[in-house]
Amino acid sequence: MSRQARNAVDDIAGAGLPSAPAGIGAGTAVCVWNYYLQQWSDGFVVAEALALGYRVRRTSDGQVLDHVFTGEEVMVERRKVQAPGYDGTLADRRHR
Questions:
Q1: Exposure string (b/e) for 14-32, b if CB count within 10 Å is 16 or more?
Q2: pLDDT (tens digit per residue) in 1-57
Q3: For 50, left (φ over 0), alpha (ψ -120 to 50), or beta?
Q4: Which of 11, 56, 71, 82 is most buried, most CB within 10 Å of its CB?
Q5: What is the mean pLDDT of residues 73-85?
Q6: Which long-range contacts (CB under 8 A, 24 or more apart) does 66-69 make?
Q7: Which domains are delineated in the chain?
Q8: Whole-angstrom Cα distance, residue 21 to residue 8?
């Protein structure tokens, strides 16, 4: 996204629209809502917190996604827990 487009997004925030929730800073591991799979997907970190939401970076390849995710589409990634009877860990992600 160009700098001009980013500035336009920030300008819209000044027009009285709801802002992104505070508290999720750059570098925080997050899950994003996957509308196609209808579930939370992990493997992202916040690249930038904007007035209207968050821009995230995919940890697998370091790519920053153009889409600005709203506060409803992003949640802090929960700790990994060992599932009883299974090798490995599962992410402890509960729906809001």
A1: eeeeeebeeebeeebebbb
A2: 555 555 555 554 444 444 445 578 999 999 999 999 999 999 999 999 999 999 999
A3: beta
A4: 56
A5: 75
A6: 66/1, 68/9, 69/32, 69/33
A7: 3-91 (2.30.30)
A8: 20
Whose CA is closest to 47, among 33, 20, 68? 68
Token output for 23? 């508290």
> In the numeric block, which tokens belong to residue 59?
């940890």
Task: Please tell me the pTM assigned to this model.
Answer: 0.61
Cα gap 44→79, rounded to integer Å: 14
